[in-house]
TrEMBL record:
GO MF term list: ATP binding; phosphorelay sensor kinase activity
Catalytic activity field: ATP + protein L-histidine = ADP + protein N-phospho-L-histidine
Protein's name according to its UniProt entry: histidine kinase
Domain Histidine kinase: 212-430
Stored SUPFAM superfamilies: ATPase domain of HSP90 chaperone/DNA topoisomerase II/histidine kinase, Homodimeric domain of signal transducing histidine kinase, PYP-like sensor domain (PAS domain)
EC number(s) stated in the UniProt entry for this protein: 2.7.13.3
Length: 431
């Protein structure tokens, strides 16, 4: 043992050459050894005490850190559960890491049904088993979801309808870490409010165009009256051929008036109903807007220039909404021309083409001097207008912005060489 070996060494040091033991020296050696041992024990005790205190402090700091993490986690969970959007967060392997309560509520799923660790395919399967996506092919839905998540140009968005006709806005984006985040928001009420605002805007537009529309209807009615009088005289003469020609003109003019009235009816009513897969014909929308606005432009002696590419593809969205936007832009251009000139005259140009990148660009320009710099940055905000208090509500361009956004496009304004330029960019319809 170490103590026994140490004692033997001390004993050897106290042994005289003749083999006798120097007891005084042995006593001094033993006392010194004992004092050294006592000091070593004291240093050891102090070291142990310091280590215990450090361990206790580290334990307290660790407990505080754990508590802080627990509080932060509760705050994070509370923030997630109180979001307006439903949220799903996935890791690099596209497995679910976090799903909030709002996601379950929006989709009508039982609380806690989706648990971390499942894949996109497993999630869709669980949702379908819970009553969602009835009748839809799981593989097709999975491919659509992955395509949405893997969109190359930043966040991707899509609007879908549920079986109970609610409208959901779905957004997805890859994260720098390799995972992805998907959010879902119920926009049924927002879209209904936008539809009401758009309907009010359509009726306002019709009211502002009343004089021009009356002129458009008066022309065929005048022609009908004249042709009827001529047909009567021809009949009285017994000239059946001339009477038939006049009757044919009456039929043509009646058809012309019918087309205008039917278009008025459809425009006032709007689309037949929200459809996330609706597509629109740009040329038809331009033609429809000019059907309603053409008379007002002619009365104002405004020259109209059209340059529409003959190979325009159909675009995403509702054609009547696009027509309403064009109608509003044409009315604004007419008013801007009248204000800048103090009377009739001016030029409006409508151009449309498909870019090499794919989107369709539709532009409405005028030579009315442009948009004042004071309102350019706020042009699409509600109640912003350059007209006097007796004209307009300041909601037209705000409604236009909402309609174009709902079509999945964007609308921008700038000043060109002679006047305002409104540029609408729309995505081509699939296929």
């Amino acid at each position: 043992m170490p103590a026994e070996r140490l004692f033997r060494r001390q004993l050897e040091r106290a042994t005289r050459p003749d083999g006798s033991i120097d007891l005084d020296q042995l006593r001094q050696l033993v006392v010194a050894w004992y004092e050294d041992s006592a000091r070593d024990r004291e240093r050891t005790d102090r070291a142990i005490t310091l280590m215990a205190e450090e361990l206790e402090g580290a334990n307290r700091r660790l407990e505080a850190l754990v508590e802080n993490l627990r509080v932060q986690n509760l705050r994070f969970e509370a923030a997630l559960d109180n979001m307006l959007q439903g949220l799903c967060l996935y890791d690099r392997a596209d497995q679910l890491v976090v799903v909030n309560r709002r996601y379950h509520e929006i989709l009508g799923l039982p609380p806690g049904l989706l648990q971390p660790g499942i894949s996109h395919a497993e999630q869709l399967s669980i949702e379908q088993a819970a009553g969602l996506h009835a009748g839809r092919d799981l593989q097709e839905m999975l491919e659509a979801r992955i395509a949405l998540v893997d969109a190359q140009d930043g966040p991707a968005r899509a609007e879908i309808f549920t079986e109970d006709r609610r409208r959901l806005d779905v957004a997805a984006q890859r994260l720098p870490t390799g995972g992805c985040v998907v959010t879902v928001m119920d926009v049924t009420a927002e879209r209904a409010a936008e539809a009401r605002a758009a309907a009010a805007g359509r009726l306002t537009s019709l009211g502002e165009m009343a004089a021009g529309l009356a002129h458009e209807l008066k022309q065929p009615l005048t022609a009908i009256a004249l042709a009827a009088a001529n047909a009567r005289r021809a009949a009285e003469r017994g000239d059946t051929a001339a009477a038939l020609v006049r009757l044919g003109r009456i039929a043509d003019q009646a058809a012309r008036g019918g087309v205008l009235i039917d278009h008025l009816r459809r425009f006032a009513r709007g689309g037949e109903g929200a459809d996330a897969n609706a597509t629109a014909d740009v040329a038809a929308a331009v033609d429809g807007a000019l059907t309603l606005m053409g008379g007002a432009l002619r009365e104002a002696s405004i020259e109209l220039a059209l340059a529409l590419s003959p190979s325009l593809p159909r675009v995403r969205g509702d054609g009547m909404a696009l027509e309403q936007v064009l109608l509003n832009l044409l009315a604004n251009a007419r008013d801007a021309l009248a204000s800048s000139r103090g009377g009739p005259g001016g030029r409006i140009a409508i151009t449309a083409c498909q870019t090499l990148e794919g989107p369709v660009v539709l532009e409405v320009t005028d030579d009315g001097g442009g948009i004042p710099a004071s309102v350019m940055d706020r042009l699409f905000q509600p109640f912003v207008t350059t007209k006097g208090p007796d004209r307009g509500t300041g909601l037209g361009l705000s409604i236009c912005h909402g309609l174009i956004t709902s079509l999945g496009g964007r609308i921008e304004a700038e000043n060109g060489a002679e006047g305002a330029v409104f540029r609408i960019t729309l995505e081509p319809a699939p296929g």
